[in-house]
C-alpha cells in the first residue's frame, strides 16, 4: 500500500517537476507542427515555467486574500514555504533543460 499522505508531504516538489516536464512535452509536440524541434521544445519549457509561476502566484493571492490588481503577488519572496517549493524546483529544472536544449 502506498502512503500518499507521506508522498504529498515530502515529495510534492517532485510531482510538480514531473508535471512540468510532461506539460512541456505536450506543448512542444503541439508547437512542433509549426516550429523546428529545438524551438518547439524551448517553447514548451517556457510555457510550463510560466504556467507554474501563474498558478503559484494565484495560490498566494488567494491565500492572503489579496485585492486586485494583484501586483504584490509577483513578490515571490513573500510566498509561503509550500508555494515556494511548488514553484522553484520545477522552475530550476525547466531552466536547466532549456539551457541544455538551447546550447545544442
UniProtKB/TrEMBL annotation:
Keywords assigned by UniProt, alphabetized: Membrane, Transmembrane, Transmembrane helix
TM segment ranges: 13-35, 85-102
Highest taxon in the source lineage: Bacteria
Protein name (database record): Transmembrane protein
Amino acid at each position: 500500500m502506498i502512503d500518499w499522505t507521506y508522498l504529498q508531504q515530502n515529495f510534492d516538489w517532485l510531482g510538480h517537476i514531473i508535471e512540468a516536464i510532461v506539460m512541456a512535452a505536450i506543448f512542444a509536440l503541439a508547437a512542433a507542427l509549426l516550429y523546428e524541434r529545438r524551438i518547439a521544445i524551448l517553447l514548451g519549457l517556457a510555457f510550463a515555467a510560466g504556467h507554474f509561476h501563474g498558478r503559484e502566484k494565484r495560490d498566494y493571492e488567494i491565500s492572503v486574500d489579496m485585492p486586485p490588481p494583484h501586483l504584490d503577488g509577483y513578490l515571490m519572496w513573500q510566498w509561503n514555504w509550500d508555494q515556494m517549493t511548488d514553484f522553484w524546483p520545477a522552475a530550476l529544472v525547466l531552466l536547466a533543460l532549456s539551457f541544455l536544449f538551447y546550447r545544442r
